[in-house]
Amino acid sequence: MTDLIDGNVLEGVSATTLWTLHNRASEAKRSDGVIRDPWAVTLFDAIDYDYRKFGKPNQSHGLRAVAFDTVTRQYLTEHPQAEVVALAEGLQTSFWRLDRLGVLDEVTWYSIDLPPVMALRRKLLPREDRVVELAQSALDRSWMDQVDGSEGVFITAEGLLMYLDPDDALNLIRDCAARFPGGRMMFDSVPRWFSVRTMQGKLKLSDRYTAPPMPFGMSPDDAVALAGHIPGVRAAHDIAMPRGRGLFTVLASPLWDRVGFLRRGRPSHTLLEFAS
Q1: How confident is the model over 134-193, as pLDDT tens digits?
Q2: Predicted local confidence at residue 142, as pLDDT
Q3: What is the predicted pLDDT for the residue at 2?
Q4: Exposed site from 18, 121, 185, 234, fewest CB < 10 Å?
C-alpha cells in the first residue's frame, strides 16, 4: 500500500493504542477471530509502524473490546438517545462496530484523546455527524461541559485508568459520578502484581519494547468495592471476560474465581452505576 501514515508520531502511553490495534486487527484478520472489526484491519494496514516490536499478537485486546461492546450495546438498547463518552479512545473503532448493530442511530458519541492521537484518527477514519471529536486529556474536565446526558450517558475508559496516578484515576471516577447522575461508566483494570512489574520496567513485550508504567492496579474485588467508597457510585459489577480460543477459553472459566489469589491476580472489567 502506498501513502502509508507514519505511526511513529505517537509516543509513550499514546503509542500503546498501536499495541492494542496490533492485537485487535490481528484477531479480526483471522477466520476464527474473537472479533469482527473491519476498521481495525483498515487502520492496521494504513499505518506504517514496526508492530513486531509488540511481540506475537494475542486475543486479549480483542476480547476486551467485545466485553465493552456487549455492555455498551445493552445500555444503548435501553437508552437509544443516550450519549457515549469514549475517554482516551486512541485508535479504537467501537463506534463502527456498534453502528453495524443498529444501536447508534440517535446517539451522540464523544471521542476524546490527546491532540496527536486525534490528528491520526482524522487522517484515517471517516467523518461522522454523530461523533464529536475533542482533542484533550481525559483529565481535562472541560469535556464534561460538552455532554448533556439528560437522555443517559455511558462513559468508557478502555485501556486508560491503569496508566494514571491512582488519585487521578479515582478522582476521575468520582467526578463522573457527581456530574452524570444515573449514568454508567465502564473501565478495565490490571492486577496489582502486573502494575508492579510495569513500574519496575519488567514487562517486556520484545527485546525492543517495554510496556510503559501502569501505576494503578486493582483486583476485581477492589473495583467492585468502589460502590461503597466513592460517593454517587450506586453499584459496581464485575463483567466476565468473553470466551476466546484455547488458553483464553480456560482463562474465562468462572472456576478460577473460586481460588482467592487467582481471582485477585487476574485483569478485570468493571461497570459502575451512578446514583440518580
Answers
A1: 999 999 999 999 999 999 999 999 999 999 999 999 999 999 999 999 999 999 999 999
A2: 98
A3: 55
A4: 234
Separation CA 209–CA 113 (nearest Å): 23
Structural domains in the chain, sorted by start: 66-274 (3.40.50.150)
Q: Is the pTM of this model over 0.85?
A: yes
207: cell is 527485546
SS (H, E, C) the chain: CCCCEEHHHCCHHHHHHHHHHHHHHHHHCCCCCCCCCHHHHHHHHHEECCHHHHCCCCCHHHHHHHHHHHHHHHHHHHCCCCEEEECCCCCCCHHHHHHHCCCCCCCEEEEEECHHHHHHHHHHCCCCCCEEEEECCCCCHHHHHHCCCCCCEEEEECCCHHHCCHHHHHHHHHHHHHHCCCCEEEEEEECHHHHHHHHCCCCEEECCEECCCCCCECCHHHHHCHHHHCCCEEEEEEECCCCCCCHHHHHCCHHHHHCHHHHHCCCEEEEEEECC
| C-alpha–C-alpha distance, residues 36 and 30, integer Å | 9
> Please, are residues 118 and 148 in contact by the beta-carbon 8 Å criterion?
no
- Whether the per-residue pLDDT at 251 is higher than 90: the answer is no
Nearest to 22 by CA among 125, 116, 91: 91
CA distance 197 to 8: 25
Kindly give the pairing relationship between strand 153-157 and strand 131-135.
Answer: unpaired
Q: Is residue 1 over pLDDT 50?
A: no
